[in-house]
Amino acid sequence: MAMDSLSKEKYEELGAYIDSLPSKKGELIRVLHRAQGIFGYLPKEVQFFVARKMDVPTSKVYGVVTFYSYFSMIPKGEHNISVCLGTACYVRGAEPVLEEFQKQLGISCNETTADGKFSLNALRCVGACGLAPVVMVGDKVYGRVTKDMVKDILAEY
User: Among 4, 12, 28, 52, which residue carries the largest CB count within 10 Å?
Assistant: First the structure.
């Protein structure tokens, strides 16, 4: 396993967390949340490590990582921007908002800016349909976003 690309201390922290669990059964999602918190994303090396430590097939780990949109296999920027494209947000104009973020940042969806400052992705629903269209930057929620607001949102960061 190529640990040189990702720090040994991070693997040790994750390993200690897994070892501290009273039972590994049913804890895969919790472990993957912790792993993403430690590494910032879940590359294949981290997925292999989790699979081995939890004694589950790598295919199961990969299946969970790819099923849940929260998990990412690519590094995220310092500020992760998520545009909701769920039904309510889409109907109320989320697509032009996403397009404006792409234009202003010069990246496509699921990409990170060259300077590592921003990453952009789309989500299906953030559970704030009354505020549609919704954009999240990290944990901060912006409601009733229009494409004219994109420049000001980016300026905050």
Answer: 28
Give the DSSP H or E segment for 124.
none
Q: Report d(CA 58, CA 36) in Å as an integer.
A: 16
Determine whether 47 is exposed, middle or buried from the number of CB atoms within 10 Å of its CB (0-12, 13-18, 19+): buried
Cβ atoms of 124 and 81 within 8 Å: the answer is: no
Q: What's the rounded Cα separation, in Å, for the pair 137 and 96?
A: 17
Q: In 95-134, which positions are buried (b, 16+ CB within 10 angstroms) versus exposed (e)?
A: bebbebbbeebebeeebbeeeeebbbbbbeebebeebbbb
Bridge partner residues of 82 (DSSP) = 121, 136
pTM value is 0.68
Tell me which of 40 and 69 has the higher pLDDT: 40
Task: Give the total residue count for the chain.
Answer: 157
pLDDT tens per residue, range 47-96:
999 999 999 999 999 999 999 878 989 888 999 999 999 999 999 999 99
75 neighbors 112 (Cβ within 8 angstroms): yes
